[in-house]
């Protein structure tokens, strides 16, 4: 009976994952491996293709209602162009199109703002997923906030991995593939933002988790009882223990020949914390050095006094 | 609570998307 409960929990979290994160790893890998027929992503590899990509997405804009229905086909935080749909001041396409008359410095900032807009939307999706974890909504509300504040960037980085390969990443609802080299060619410190995520993702992808494994792993990350400032750690640890058991069983059944996968996965959580710390420091540096930068209020809330 | 107003809002609103 206990194993049956753990399997039921795995199924429940997988269903919630599919509900809130429509661009699954399965879909992303199909796009990346060219198995989607004619629907190949548009490739952005230089400034010219970036301009063309902007045009391309402009033609394919999704009506707001449809977008709300989809909530997000884009799973990770680097969702360039997504701001276009919201009409928010953070949107990339919501602003004027790129022209030679603009100061060159604005391009990176505009792109960065569009990423922020998509990230904020992704935080909302992760919050909905967290609320679907049995017992999460019964925790002290302040502890729920703390778990999200500390967990959400880690979750977003894990969710970015399926969208990436060694050469680049899918963005904009899987419609665009942006090359790693292009991201590296942006001016500093923007050029330094994605490289650590690529390095992590390439290694993480070798574990070959599928979407049902991912759902459990994300729940484990969210339910970390060692986040600073938690008021009532015990119920969080109890919830996490159950999800950990479910994950362990899931990996045994789903990857019977992959030895020590559970242990390897848990080790990734240490790497993740370092990546998030570095990411937050980079954002703080940007805030100091970029005169025109504004940080999305939700991301500001999350990153303030984080590390 | 004020420090994390939007997160509180996201956690308490059921499914309706908060204006981000």
Question: Explain this structure to me?
Answer:
The complex is a heterodimer of chains A (307) and B (20). Chain A has 307 residues and is mostly helical. Chain A has 13 helices and 4 strands. Chain A has a 4-stranded mixed sheet with strand order 1-4-3-2. Chain A is globular. Chain B has 20 residues and is mainly alpha-helical. The termini of chain B are far apart. Classes of the chains: A mainly alpha (307), B mainly alpha (20). At the A-B interface, α6, α7 and α13 of A face α1 of B.
What's the arrangement of secondary structure elements?
The complex is a heterodimer of chains A (307) and B (20).
Chain A: H1 2-20, H2 25-32, E1 42-44, H3 47-59, H4 64-70, H5 83-86, H6 105-131, H7 141-160, E2 164-165, E3 168-171, E4 176-179, H8 180-185, H9 195-205, H10 211-222, H11 233-254, H12 261-289, H13 297-303
Parallel strand pairs in A: 1-4
Antiparallel strand pairs in A: 2-3, 3-4
Chain B: H1 5-12
Q: Roughly how much helix do the residues of chain A carry, as a percent range?
A: 55-70%
Number of strands of chain B: 0
Q: What global shape of chain A is seen?
A: globular
Individual helix count of chain A: 13
Whole-number average pLDDT of chain A?
85
Question: Which sheet architecture does the biggest sheet of chain B show?
Answer: none
End-to-end separation of chain B:
18 Å
């Amino acid at each position: 009976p206990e194993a049956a409960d753990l399997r039921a929990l795995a199924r429940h979290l997988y269903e919630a994952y599919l509900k809130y994160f429509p661009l699954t790893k399965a879909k992303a890998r199909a796009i990346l491996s060219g198995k989607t027929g004619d629907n190949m992503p548009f490739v952005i590899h230089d400034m010219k293709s970036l301009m063309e990509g902007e045009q391309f997405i402009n033609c394919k804009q999704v009506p707001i209602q449809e977008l709300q229905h989809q909530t997000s086909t884009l799973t990770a935080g680097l969702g360039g162009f997504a701001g276009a749909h919201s009409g928010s001041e953070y949107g990339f396409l919501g602003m004027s199109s790129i022209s030679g008359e603009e100061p060159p410095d604005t391009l990176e900032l505009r792109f960065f703002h569009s990423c922020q807009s998509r990230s904020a939307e992704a935080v909302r999706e992760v919050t909905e997923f967290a609320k679907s974890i049995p017992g999460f909504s019964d925790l002290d509300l302040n502890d729920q906030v703390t778990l999200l504040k500390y967990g959400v960037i880690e979750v977003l980085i894990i969710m970015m991995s399926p969208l990436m390969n060694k050469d680049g990443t899918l963005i904009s609802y899987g419609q665009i593939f942006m090359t790693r080299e292009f991201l590296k060619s942006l001016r500093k410190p923007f050029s330094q933002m994605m490289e650590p995520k690529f390095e992590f993702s390439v290694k993480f992808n070798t574990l070959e988790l599928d979407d049902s494994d991912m759902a459990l792993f994300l729940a484990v990350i969210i339910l970390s009882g060692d986040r600073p400032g938690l008021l009532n750690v015990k119920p969080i640890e109890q919830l996490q223990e159950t999800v950990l058991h479910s994950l362990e069983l899931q990996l045994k059944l789903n990857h019977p020949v992959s030895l020590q996968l559970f242990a390897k996965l848990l080790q990734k959580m240490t790497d993740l914390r370092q990546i998030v710390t570095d990411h937050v420091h980079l954002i703080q540096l940007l805030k100091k050095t970029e005169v025109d930068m504004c940080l999305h209020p939700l991301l500001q809330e999350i990153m303030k006094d984080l590390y | 609570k004020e420090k994390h107003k939007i997160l509180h809002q996201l956690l308490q609103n059921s499914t309706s998307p908060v204006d981000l």
